[in-house]
C-alpha cells in the first residue's frame, strides 16, 4: 500500500513539470459516501456525508448506512464557518459541542492550495474509460505535514492524502451527487440545542481530520 501511494505521489511530481497557473476552485454542494483509510489499508471509517459548500457545513455518519468492521463509529456535524462542531449520539439523544482549532477538511480545496499538475486515471484513449484529475498540495496547519488533493475538472474532490508524523490518512469520496438531499441533516438536533461549548484541553487541536486518529 505504501509503495502504491509513493508511486502515485511520484506521478504527481511528474505532472507538475507541465503545470500551468491555476487558482483553487470551490466544490459544489454534495451528497455521497466517504471512506477513510490509513496507509496500511485499514478502513478507519465508511459512511454517508452531506456537504453545504456555501454554508461550509458537513455531516458525516459512519457505520450507520454502511455498516463495516471498522474501528470508529462517528456522527459529526461540522460548522467550519462558525468554528464549532458536534459529536452526536442519536441513540442516547446526547451530544458534545466543541470548538474547532483547525477547519481543514477533504471536501474543499484550501484557498492557499498550490496546483501541481494534472493526472489521468484509467484509459483516456477509450471514451468513458479515463478521467482527468487536478492535483493540489499544501501544508497542514499547526503540523509539519502536507496534503495532496485530487479533484475533477468540475472541482469535485475525489481523494485526499494527508501526510503527517502521527497517522497518514486517505479520504475518498464516492457516489457523489451535486445536491443536498436532506437539509435536515445539517441542522443541529433538538437535543443538542442550547449546549455549551466544552473547554478544549491544553495542547488539543480539534479538527475533522483528528476525529479519525
From TrEMBL:
Q: Which Pfam families match?
A: Ependymin
Its transmembrane ranges are: none
The residue stretches assigned to a coiled coil in this entry are none
> Which GO cellular component term is one of those annotated?
lysosome
Which keywords does the record carry? Signal
Output the GO biological process annotations, alphabetical, semicolon-separated. Answer: cell-matrix adhesion
Give the molecular function GO annotations: calcium ion binding
Signal peptide, first to last residue: 1-19
Tell me if Electron transport is a UniProt keyword of this record. Answer: no
Similarity comment: Belongs to the ependymin family.
Q: What is this protein called?
A: Ependymin
Q: Which organism is it from?
A: Scophthalmus maximus (Turbot)
The taxonomic lineage of its organism, from the top, reads: Eukaryota, Metazoa, Chordata, Craniata, Vertebrata
Amino acid at each position: 500500500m505504501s509503495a502504491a501511494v509513493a508511486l502515485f505521489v511520484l506521478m504527481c511530481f511528474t505532472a507538475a513539470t507541465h503545470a500551468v497557473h491555476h487558482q483553487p476552485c470551490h466544490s459544489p454542494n454534495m451528497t455521497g459516501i466517504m471512506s477513510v483509510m490509513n496507509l496500511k489499508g485499514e478502513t478507519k471509517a465508511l459512511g454517508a456525508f452531506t456537504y453545504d459548500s456555501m454554508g461550509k457545513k458537513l455531516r458525516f455518519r459512519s457505520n450507520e448506512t454502511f455498516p463495516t468492521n471498522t474501528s470508529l463509529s462517528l456522527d459529526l456535524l461540522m460548522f467550519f464557518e462558525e468554528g464549532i462542531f458536534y459529536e452526536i449520539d442519536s441513540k442516547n439523544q446526547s451530544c458534545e459541542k466543541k470548538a474547532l482549532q483547525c477547519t481543514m477538511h477533504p471536501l474543499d480545496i484550501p484557498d492557499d492550495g498550490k496546483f501541481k499538475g494534472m493526472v489521468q486515471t484509467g484509459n483516456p484513449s477509450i471514451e468513458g474509460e479515463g478521467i482527468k484529475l487536478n492535483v493540489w498540495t499544501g501544508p497542514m496547519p499547526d503540523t509539519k505535514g502536507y496534503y495532496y488533493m485530487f479533484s475533477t475538472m468540475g472541482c469535485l474532490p475525489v481523494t485526499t492524502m494527508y501526510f503527517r508524523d502521527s497517522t497518514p490518512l486517505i479520504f475518498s469520496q464516492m457516489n457523489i451527487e451535486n445536491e443536498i438531499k436532506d437539509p435536515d441533516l445539517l441542522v443541529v438536533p433538538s437535543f443538542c440545542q442550547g449546549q455549551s461549548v466544552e473547554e478544549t484541553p491544553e495542547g488539543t487541536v480539534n479538527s475533522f481530520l483528528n476525529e479519525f486518529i
